[in-house]
């Protein structure tokens, strides 16, 4: 199976270990992975700020560069959602984009829905709290939302339950926003920090040693608050856990 790995800009620049872990995980599961020599920003920061003319060239470049691949996988729910749900606003009706949209997947969705992973030969003997990001839940349907009646599910949790030795702690509010929201964290700093601290407290109260998520942007926000307050809790992207990385070697 041929997979193009799209590495978001903030992971490329700040958290390269997440990109490596994603690559290792996909290859371990039998994928032939390519990282295209193309722009590493989906255009979301510009689009969210209203700079549509600046975001449009990035969308067009992404579509042109990634159309040749069988599948496109991204370890970020918000970037994936930008591509599959919002590029239409930038490029309009476009047959090439429609092909891109149908074959672009967030990492956990790709593992559960395309590869249909049922077993992972990895161990992570730690207490873990799962943060489910807003984009992943409400725009990609990676899990159920508490405001909607229906069967409860979580693609990320399903994968984590395959990890030997892991103890997934139960949170009081399983799908609450961390407060990051991209530019929201800049324009509404106080509210953003308060929301982030609430999420951290929920994980602490549940006894988590590690907070994991499918969006490194959420974890970046939480990790900043954790480090400033010198709290004894770590953050790790879900790709790192599923690839067999251990919290002890994280920096």
Automatic annotation (TrEMBL):
GO terms for molecular function: oxidoreductase activity. Pfam families: CCG. Residues 3-83, 128-223 form the Cysteine-rich domain. It comes from the Bacteria. Transmembrane segments: none annotated. GO terms for cellular component: cytosol. This is Lactate utilization protein A. It comes from Rubinisphaera italica.
